[in-house]
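re: ur msg from earlier - yeah i can do the zinc ion complex, just paste it... oh wait u already did. ok heres what im feeding in:
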Amino acid sequence: MVDIVSEIECENCGAALSINPGEIVSTCRYCGYTAVVGADKPFQLEHSLIVNNNNAASIENALRDWMREGFMKPEDLAKKSKILTLELRYLPFWLVPVDATSNYEGVLERVSPPSPRKGVIDRNYDWLVLGRKGAQFPTRDYSVPNTGKIPFDFKRIDSGANFLNSEMTGEEAIERAKDEVEVNQRFLAKQEVDQITSFNTNFRVDRPTYIHAPVWFSTYEYKGRSYSALLDGNTGAVLRADIPRTDFKMI
Ligand SMILES: [Zn+2]
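and the outut:
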């Protein structure tokens, strides 16, 4: 383990690396070299970047458009809301190609009499894992855009943005992806049977890709309370946002 963070240097160009406690993948901001910190034999990770196409003004516009449209929102939401904070963060993700084959046995109880069933759920996934432990992010609402993905280039990172490194290795991301895919496979099996009596999944996993993606974190105020919103920096789409509860009268 390395305990003096400030003395870590880039294996490629020798520049000092800035790494926060807990981060185990470093990205050199001079040459872009990406590696696992403290690995016995350093090797360069394949690293991609999703380009940010927005600025504070365009993100605020996108958020106000979202406030104006759709159901279940107060009518004056766009008019009365005040944007409190807007911050661009580059979040580290692992994109894990997973091929999962689950054999299940169970009982179908929604028909009478209940009958035993078995089957196979075979699916391919590009499963996205956020490389931060304990961070809340709606990974299932987010898919890496097909366009705008380039080989990692630090010059394309907006200055002033918050750049976060992964707190887990690719191997840890694979384990997390397998756990989450298994949960999803069970969910799919539960569409076919009501009780699962046996469930067994085989995985084929390819090498994960390390990706940085731009996400705008925003908070806004409406009628004295604050709410949060996340927007995709590449597309400007709202990934998730709090909706103030509309008051309605029970008749
Ligand atoms: Zn370097």
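cool cool. Residues 170-189 form the longest helix (20 residues). ping me if u need the other ligands too
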